[in-house]
Design goal:
By secondary structure, this protein is of the alpha+beta class. It has one domain. The chain is 24% helix and 44% strand. The chain is built from three helices and ten strands. The strands form two sheets. The protein has a six-stranded mixed β-sheet with strand order 5-6-2-1-8-9, sandwiched between helices. Strand 8 and strand 9 form a beta hairpin. The longest helix is centred in the middle third of the chain and has 15 residues. The radius of gyration is 15 Å and the shape is globular. It starts with a helix and ends with a strand.
């Protein structure tokens, strides 16, 4: 569902949209987080934020880009599970069409009743930024949209 949504949003660009998808993996007791952002928007934001050369498609720069992407996202995207802030472990990023897909994992989440997302990705880049948030838990998918300056959304199961 999220992939279809993002492909549809790609067609709409120059709208400014990101999609954050969080899947609970019951077997591994983890949250699998993927964040999809238009590459050119993310590159411009990283340049502005860090004042350095940015090229997410240059494989020679992957290690440096990993550091920038991780630092930016963990600053502007945070999760609170059942009232406790959790740490996201960066698993890397890849290019798919015109977007950058960034991957994270949260360990030791056997179950969840409530997840709060603080998402202000690209708000510092674009006043019209919209961030879609999708959470899948126990076969139930819920979606909420945040429009700049909205930052917080809560999902309860």
């Amino acid at each position: 569902m999220a992939t279809i949504l993002f492909k549809w949003l790609l067609w709409l660009h120059p709208f400014f949209v990101s999609v954050a998808e969080i899947n609970h993996n019951k077997k591994d007791k983890t949250l699998e987080v993927s964040i999809h952002i238009f590459t050119n928007d993310l590159e411009q934001t990283l340049r502005k934020s860090f004042g350095t050369k940015v090229n997410l498609t240059d494989t020679a720069m992957t290690k440096d880009m990993d550091i920038l992407v991780n630092a930016y996202i963990i600053t502007y995207f945070k999760l609170v599970v059942d009232g406790k802030p959790v740490q996201m472990k960066f698993d890397g990023f890849e290019q798919i069409a015109e977007s950058t897909w960034c991957y994270f994992e949260v360990s030791d989440v056997a179950a969840l009743n409530k997840i709060q997302i603080k998402n202000s990705l690209l708000y510092d880049f674009e006043a019209k930024q919209t961030n879609m948030n999708i959470v899948k838990y126990n076969g139930v998918e819920k979606t909420r949209k945040l429009e700049n300056p909205e930052r917080d959304v809560v999902f309860e199961y």
